[in-house]
Design goal:
The protein has 388 residues and is of the alpha/beta class. It has 17 helices and 8 strands. The chain has one domain: TIM Barrel (Alpha-Beta Barrel), CATH 3.20.20.220. It has an 8-stranded parallel sheet. Helix 15 links the parallel strand 7 and strand 8. The longest helix has 24 residues.
Length: 388
């Protein structure tokens, strides 16, 4: 069995200074009041366009992002690959709402595909649909509301760009993850990705949807999708995550007076996450998965499921993934045992990536004990190094 407490493996490519910076950041984020204050400050900086990119770049950006460009991220890609960990380059400019921004995300996605061609260091390409089209249009589509003439024109352009991306991915044989987003636009995202799966996943899995298991309807969604796929003859790609908008989902539901769409108890989310893993492994002949988790118990459970089914550690239908700068004890120890592992490596101009960093800080604040676990791992390694 893998020892996820092996800090020597987990931090094998981290310098003492890297550990110090990580310790400082996680120590700060471990205090909810300070963490919340800092996210407010980041929002103010973003709104007022205060020029402190240099300070952000040296601290939180350095810990969680690969660089400002694909080229900047190459050192991170190579560093991870020395430990047989793949990179999922994520152009993390969020909250885009104008045509120039959508064109930029489209161009960046094509660039990543170019870099990923015949490159085993980059096993997947990822993007959000809101990087290519207005949030409000997806909201309208989810509610089955009529679009204006201008919105229809935007939708046509969006569909053309999506088609170009997917056809290029198919040509170079590189799978695509499409990230999940807020529940009130996810219905449209699910529908779009479903159509792409039917079109591109006939022979092998090229298109992956993301299922957020903090939603109490996702197990049923997963099972229904599996049944349809078997009946209609296509394969399913699923990135399974717990979810990134928990507080936001609850606040909106309470404000607008509809049923809260997410589990309010973490234990219920954990249960559904593991049940999703179990269902997928039981149906591995037509489902490929990426387990996106920072949870040791779920990581161990996936290993157990694979062993029960006599599935090889490096079976290419099964990946695990964590965020850059977090849960290295999971990523590096899994990779060391010959499991398929990838890291999400966000990149982009500092100011454009700030919304992503804010969301991650808010998400981690809502995950009980996450910062404490990161600190414990770092302290163990610093203690080991001093003793050796």
């Amino acid at each position: 069995m893998i020892d996820f407490n092996n800090s020597k493996n987990a931090f094998s490519d981290k310098s003492d200074f890297d550990l110090f910076r990580a310790f400082f950041l996680f120590k700060t984020l471990n205090y909810p009041i300070i963490s919340k204050f800092l996210t407010v400050i980041l929002k103010v900086i973003l709104y007022l366009r205060i020029p402190i990119d240099f300070l952000i770049k040296l601290t939180i950006f350095k810990q969680f992002c690969g660089g400002e460009t694909i080229s900047d991220s190459s050192k991170t890609i190579d560093k991870l690959w020395k430990s047989s960990i793949g990179t999922i380059l994520d152009y993390s400019a969020e909250g885009q709402e104008n045509e120039d921004d959508f064109k930029n995300v489209f161009d960046e996605t094509l660039k990543v595909l170019d870099i990923a061609k015949d490159n085993s260091k980059i096993p997947f390409v990822v993007f959000k649909l809101t990087g290519l089209i207005q949030f409000n249009i997806l909201k309208k589509l989810s509610k089955k509301q009529e679009l204006s003439e201008k919105e229809n024109t935007t939708l046509i352009r969006f569909n053309k760009r999506l088609d170009i991306i997917c056809k290029k991915a198919k040509k170079i044989n590189k799978p695509i993850f499409i990230d999940a987003e807020e529940s009130w636009i996810q219905t449209a995202i699910d529908s779009i990705v479903f159509s792409l799966m039917k079109q591109f996943n006939k022979e092998k899995v090229l298109i992956f949807n993301t299922v957020q298991m903090y939603r109490h309807d996702r197990l049923v969604y997963l099972m229904n999708l599996s049944q349809i796929a078997q009946e209609e003859g296509f394969k399913i790609g699923l990135k399974i995550v717990r979810g990134a908008y928990h507080e936001k989902e609850i606040e909106r539901a309470l404000e607008k007076g509809y049923t809260i769409p997410v589990h309010e108890k973490k234990s219920d989310t954990d249960k559904d996450f593991n049940n999703a893993l179990k269902f997928c492994i039981e149906n591995i002949n037509h489902i490929s998965i990426c387990s996106g988790t920072h949870n040791i118990e779920s990581s161990m459970y996936l290993i157990k499921l694979m062993q029960e089914k006599s599935i090889e550690n490096n079976d290419d239908r099964i990946y695990s993934s964590q965020l850059l700068g977090m849960s290295d004890n999971i990523s590096y120890n899994l990779s060391n045992a010959n499991y398929n592992v990838s890291k999400y490596v966000p990149y982009g101009p500092v100011k454009k990536v700030i919304p992503y960093l804010i969301r991650r800080a808010e998400e981690n604040r809502s995950i009980s004990g996450q910062m404490g676990r990161e600190l414990k791992n770092i302290l163990e390694e610093r203690k080991r190094r001093k003793a050796s």
